[in-house]
Design the sequence.
């Protein structure tokens, strides 16, 4: 290790300075009612501020009711959602932390059960709803067949993302991430496997990326200039004929021109036919390809990065600028504190936790 590990070094994006490079990856908790955050979200997200992470992201917050993955998803489609989320951001800021919100629309993968409540599509009588997508093909036989979106639907979705970004600012968030990965609506438009349209939003690469660029432009216009904007992408569909690494690099260059500050590079989720062999940091090469090709962007990697040494190695190799963690932080909200001890550097924590020591 170097004398100054990069994992615990600050990173500045616009007017926001992250105290370190550890980021809480968006993780769906399926614990909201009517999109409203509650005490669960306050405690769940607040614990990471006490643990010293550099930036916390909420789970996916739907920009419209029909954009929810499940009936229990978090939302930002209504002004009523602002105050409950403001409780969370106020607590995080009081502990010296930073927090962002992920804005999302599930498209054809909407109206599904939370993992521990069932499988497949939620029927109407249990609170389900009609879903839509770029085309009328379902993700799988277990999910609803979507309605192909009209031009009016596309305009409405773009406007919904912008309105949600404005609500995020009022709620006190420090960053916004547009969710264009994991087989949800914006990813569906990107991939030829889900998008078989023949209009200006389908077919050639320039058409398939059009909605993402329009949403990004709308969100950047609604989101304060001094605050950073992230976009999460699936770098590959892991299936023949789908979205791939080359197209990811190309769209990242376009996103940089639209005022995006960082891309969050993940993968998969678009087709049930995907073939993946996961392993430690298996998605990092995709992030490295983007970082090498688009130097104007900060790049975040995620996926099976379980140890501080592995995270630090990715940063030292120049594969990424930020490390997003999901399961490691879910299992140990004080992972960052353990990382600081493992790498031999101090970590600023809220005063009540600053006296803690870690031996493992």
Sequence:
């Amino acid at each position: 290790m170097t004398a100054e590990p990069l994992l615990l070094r600050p990173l500045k994006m616009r007017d926001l300075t992250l105290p370190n490079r550890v980021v809480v990856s968006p993780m769906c908790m399926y614990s909201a009612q009517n999109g409203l955050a509650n005490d669960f979200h306050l405690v769940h997200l607040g614990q990471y501020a006490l643990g010293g992470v550099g930036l916390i992201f909420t789970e996916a917050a739907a920009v419209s009711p029909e954009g929810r993955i499940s009936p229990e998803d978090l939302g930002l489609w209504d002004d009523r959602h602002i105050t409950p989320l403001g409780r969370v951001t106020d607590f995080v800021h009081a502990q010296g932390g930073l927090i962002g919100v992920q804005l999302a629309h599930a498209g054809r993968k909407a109206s599904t059960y939370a993992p521990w409540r069932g499988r497949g599509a939620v029927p109407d009588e249990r609170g389900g709803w009609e879903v839509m997508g770029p085309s009328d093909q379902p993700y799988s036989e277990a999910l609803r067949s979507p309605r192909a979106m009209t031009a009016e639907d596309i305009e409405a979705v773009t406007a919904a993302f912008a309105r949600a970004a404005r609500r995020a600012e009022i709620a006190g968030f420090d960053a916004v991430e547009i969710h264009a990965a994991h087989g949800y609506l914006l990813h569906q438009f990107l991939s030829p496997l889900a998008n078989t349209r023949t209009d200006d939003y389908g077919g050639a690469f320039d058409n398939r990326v059009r909605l993402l660029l329009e949403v990004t432009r709308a969100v950047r216009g609604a989101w304060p200039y001094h605050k950073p904007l992230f976009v999460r992408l699936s770098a590959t569909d892991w299936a023949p004929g789908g979205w791939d690494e080359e197209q990811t690099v190309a769209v990242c260059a376009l996103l940089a021109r639209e005022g995006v500050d960082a891309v969050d590079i993940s993968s998969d989720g678009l087709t049930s036919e995907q073939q993946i062999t996961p392993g430690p940091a298996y998605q990092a090469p995709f992030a490295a390809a983007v970082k090498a090709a688009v130097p104007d962007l900060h790049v975040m990697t995620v996926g099976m990065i379980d140890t501080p040494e592995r995270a630090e190695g990715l940063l030292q190799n120049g594969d990424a600028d930020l490390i997003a963690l999901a399961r490691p932080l879910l299992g140990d909200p004080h992972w960052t504190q353990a990382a600081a001890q493992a790498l031999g550097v101090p970590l600023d924590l809220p005063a009540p936790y600053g006296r803690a020591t870690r031996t493992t």
The first helix runs from residue 39 to 51.
